[in-house]
Amino acid sequence: MRASAFLAGITAELPILLGVVPFGLIYGVLALQAGIPAAAALGMSSILFAGSAQFVATQLFGAGVPGAVLLLTTFIVNLRHLLYSASVAPYVRHLSPGWKWLLAYLLTDEAYAVTIVHYTTVTRKRDNAVTRERHWFFLGAGLALWMTWQASTAVGIFLGAQVPAGWQLDFALPLTFIALVRPSLVDRPGVAAAIVAGVVATAAVTLPLRLGLIIAALAGIITGTLADRGRTA
Amino acid sequence: MGAARYWLIIVGMGAITYAMRLSFILLPGRLRLPAILRRSLRFVPPAVFSALILPAVLRPAGPLEISPSNVRLLAAAVAAIVAWRTKNTVLTIAVGMAALWILQWVL
């Protein structure tokens, strides 16, 4: 039962891994291009273990941003993990502390996506042999993603060392963010958040300590929230 | 920047992220995320990513450059069209880089 739940978790994660591999490769290449030492770039994949935050950190490391701004930006970018944590908490309440710490470490966008679907649909019934072992599904999905992310990052770092500077791969970072922003631009409040944040960031580039990014992000988030409330009220 | 400083910052970023992942899993079951925060969270990606994109393409070398001679702005516009139509990350990056190289060669 455990093995089958574990394998089901891996299987559910497989389609997502197809998209994760090129993303990890690109991260590895760009981290090296931004001047991050190879070991630290690899360390970021296991210690931070959060794709979009790693791309943002790569950009900020390359721009020589102070550490405090990097920490604050990471906090904002990864705030959504509070939501994931709250969402899976009722399903892992009965587990030992060891399991909780392990599954929390593996709680990424990609593992959350398949696990919460499994928890809320496939094994919704309260208490039977399948639901009691469903944390093995979470573990399978999380570990499949973890190994794929580490391996693709490592290959990317290896490839990054071979890329000549003339290719201007630093431009792949804003391009990555263009691809990442697309799914969030689905309604007016989302677009308003993006426009305000972009304009403020562009105007505030010269602010000391690179605080422009954080001020712009907060301005965008507040704009989106207010626009959303205006619409639903 | 020395290697030790990279590690220090990376461990800090990791600790912040891990604390947020652990938060509600470790906290007693009655606690809930404030409603205002839950509603605001979906605006983090458009705000943060846009705040990283626009300065990079509108001020590639420092001063504001909204002109056809700004190849990074043009290549980003091409990539944005691809992202809009396909929602494909790898294709967006590939087309954007190809557009940059071609535009630099042509202009």
Please explain how this structure is put together.
The complex is a heterodimer of chains A (233) and B (107). Chain A has helices at residues 2-33, 38-47, 51-62, 67-77, 80-92, 97-105, 109-122, 129-132, 135-160, 172-181, 188-203, 212-232. With 233 residues, chain A is an all-alpha fold. Chain A has two domains: 2-166, no CATH class; 185-232, no CATH class. In chain A, helix 1 (2-33) runs parallel beside helix 9 (135-160), helix 2 (38-47) runs antiparallel to helix 9 (135-160) and helix 3 runs antiparallel to helix 4. The mean pLDDT of chain A is 91. Chain B has 107 residues and is mainly α. Chain B has a domain at 33-106. Chain B is built from five helices and no strands. Chain B has helices at residues 3-26, 35-40, 44-58, 71-86, 89-106. In chain B, helix 4 (71-86) runs antiparallel to helix 5 (89-106). The longest helix of chain B has 24 residues, at 3-26. Chain B is elongated, with a radius of gyration of 20 Å. The two termini of chain B are 36 Å apart. The chains are: A mainly alpha (233), B mainly alpha (107).
Which key features would you list for this structure?
heterodimer, A: 233 residues, mainly alpha, 2 domains, globular, B: 107 residues, 5 helices, 74% helix, 0% strand
CA radius of gyration of chain B is 20 Å
Annotation, overall tally of beta strands of chain A = 0
Number of domains of chain A: 2
Shape of chain A: globular
Number of helices of chain B: 5
Range of helix content of chain A: over 70%
> Any idea what the shape of chain B is?
elongated
- Note the main sheet of chain B: none
Q: How many DSSP helices of chain A?
A: 12
Name the average pLDDT of chain A. 91
Q: Report the count of strand segments of chain B.
A: 0
User: What string gives the helices and strands of chain A in order?
Assistant: HHHHHHHHHHHH
